[in-house]
Design goal:
Length: 101
């Protein structure tokens, strides 16, 4: 890791600090719940507007149309062009009344 300082003492590194946002997203075929990681100070919208083809989701649960969990795992890469909508899930809000969280 390299660290560079400017004349005011601000430092810059190769490491990108991200925060995780509990989220729920709808793809063309499934509902996905998990943690989406965005740059510190960023928004979910910013994550979807970057140049990467995939969005990383950790602690992922994938639900079918009937609300059944069809996949659960520590990491899932979701192709961005398959995402229809995404929203943050706040404490106490399950983000999906049809699927058990």
């Amino acid at each position: 890791m390299t660290i560079e300082y400017d004349e005011k003492g601000k430092f810059y590194t190769d490491v990108v600090t991200k925060i995780s946002i509990p989220s729920v997203m709808q793809t063309t075929t499934h509902l996905i719940r998990g943690q989406v990681h965005v740059r510190q100070g960023g928004r979910l919208k910013d994550q979807l507007e970057n140049d990467e083809a995939f969005t990383a989701v950790t602690d992922a649960k994938v639900y079918d149309k009937d609300g059944n969990v069809v996949f659960s795992g520590p990491f899932l890469a979701v192709r961005r062009d398959q995402i229809i909508w995404i929203m943050p899930v706040h404490q106490g809000d399950d983000g999906n009344k049809g699927a058990e969280g």
